[in-house]
């Protein structure tokens, strides 16, 4: 470094991760072996985005600057032999995109220092990066509540084009937004309306990063992949799987016009070839599922105009049954009239049947699961039993796989 033995930037408390609206403060440390004449010593704080069409190239094709602030810590003079310290402090603007680094560009923040020397002397510069973390609250994303679902119907030929068939592929994720560490619950239905066994069904968690150059560059990568078995001829099946969300940058970079990040689940059949996408969002604050639940109806309040006499179970049952079940007009007394001892009262005929169609059954009396004798089978739209299929392979690839370029 010539006349300088040390020329470094240090942040207060060695902090390197900040949030928008915070201050970046630290010290510029300079140690000289000899006296150094200088015209100016400056410290600059800068935030920018740069993109390129060549992988890992820092000669940006397009740049976008968010802010740049410069502080002059020393005017023209001489740095004597020894140690020198110059404090600095910068306020980070409140509306900035978070830090991001990809194959074809980055959103970066840094503090730089410059020593301008005399005309024929060497100038000095150094820099130190810091990182900006801006939390994405998924609850602020429009239409975030509820599942993400889609379907496709594929008609195809087989046996050298002699026969035709149809496959209906449907899939649904339990939510539209997730945070790293959460589990994506995916349910897929395959209705094979043909005489040929299908290929395997595959679900992939994908990341798509678009870099806005003259011709947009797309970096598409698979983060996780699960594969289920094929479906036999004329069968309806259901495939349930789970995918753990790895550590990932958040969806979109609010305030950045050059880099766009998207996530989706790709569900596909290998044969016949059929696929679709389920868009999802990745954020830092998870979706509040309680706010999306319908409110429960208020408890029933007795009519104050009704009699305060509590009816018996038999009377309550007879009021909720059709008129054909009634044996006479209602009486004003809560108990039946006494009968002679020589003629005992007959046993009442049972009026409540164990049936989901009973007139006194509650509105939600339909079963929530198939009967036990169905062996966990459900009936599909075509009247066929739907059975679960197993998973052949589950691969959690993480966020740093080899990109696939489109």
From TrEMBL:
Arrestin C-terminal-like domain mapped to chain residues: 12-137, 163-287
InterPro entries, alphabetized: Arrestin-like_C (IPR014752), Arrestin-like_N (IPR011021), Arrestin_C-like (IPR011022), Arrestin_domain-protein (IPR050357), Ig_E-set (IPR014756)
Gene3D superfamilies tied to this protein: 2.60.40.640
Source organism superkingdom: Eukaryota
Composition-biased stretches (Pro residues): 331-349, 360-370
An annotated GO cellular component: cytoplasm
Compositionally biased spans, kind Polar residues: 319-328
Region called Disordered, residue ranges: 289-375
GO biological process per UniProt: nervous system development; protein transport
Gene Ontology molecular function terms on file: ubiquitin protein ligase binding; ubiquitin-like ligase-substrate adaptor activity
Pfam families recorded: Arrestin_C (PF02752), Arrestin_N (PF00339)
Family: Belongs to the arrestin family.
Annotated protein name in UniProt: Arrestin C-terminal-like domain-containing protein
């Amino acid at each position: 470094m010539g006349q300088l033995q040390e020329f470094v930037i240090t942040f207060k408390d060695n902090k390197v991760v900040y949030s928008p609206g915070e201050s970046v403060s630290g010290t510029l440390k300079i140690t000289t072996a000899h006296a150094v004449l200088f015209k100016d010593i400056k410290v600059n704080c800068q935030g920018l985005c740069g993109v390129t069409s060549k992988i890992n190239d820092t000669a940006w094709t397009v740049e976008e600057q968010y802010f740049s602030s410069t502080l002059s810590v020393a005017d023209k003079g001489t740095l004597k032999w020894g140690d020198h310290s110059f404090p600095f402090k910068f306020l980070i603007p409140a509306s900035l995109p978070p830090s991001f680094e990809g194959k074809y560009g980055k959103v970066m923040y840094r503090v730089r220092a410059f020593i301008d020397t005399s005309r024929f002397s060497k100038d000095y510069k150094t820099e130190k990066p810091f990182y900006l973390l801006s939390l994405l609250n998924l609850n602020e994303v429009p239409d975030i509540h509820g599942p993400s679902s889609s379907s496709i119907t594929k008609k195809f030929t087989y046996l050298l084009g002699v026969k035709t068939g149809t496959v209906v592929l449907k899939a649904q994720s339990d939510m539209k937004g997730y945070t790293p560490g959460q589990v994506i619950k995916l349910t897929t239905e395959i209705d094979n309306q043909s005489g040929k066994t299908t290929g395997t069904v595959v679900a992939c968690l994908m990341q798509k990063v678009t870099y806005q150059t003259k011709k947009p560059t797309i970096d598409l990568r698979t983060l996780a992949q699960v594969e289920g078995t094929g479906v036999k001829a004329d069968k309806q099946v259901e495939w349930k799987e789970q995918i753990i969300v790895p550590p990932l940058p958040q969806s979109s970079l609010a305030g950045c016009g050059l880099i766009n990040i998207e996530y989706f689940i790709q569900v596909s059949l290998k044969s016949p070839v059929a696929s679709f996408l389920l868009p999802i969002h990745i954020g830092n604050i998870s979706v509040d599922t309680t706010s999306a639940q319908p409110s429960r109806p208020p408890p029933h309040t007795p009519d104050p105009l009704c009699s305060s006499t509590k009816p018996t179970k038999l009377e309550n049952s007879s009021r909720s049954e059709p008129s054909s079940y009634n044996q006479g007009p209602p009486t004003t007394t809560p108990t039946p009239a006494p009968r002679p001892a020589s003629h005992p009262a007959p046993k009442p005929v049972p009026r409540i049947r164990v049936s989901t169609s009973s007139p006194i059954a509650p509105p939600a009396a339909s079963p929530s699961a198939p009967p036990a004798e169905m062996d966990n089978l459900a009936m599909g739209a075509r009247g066929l039993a739907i059975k679960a299929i197993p998973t052949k392979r589950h691969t959690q690839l993480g966020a740093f796989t080899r990109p696939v370029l489109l």
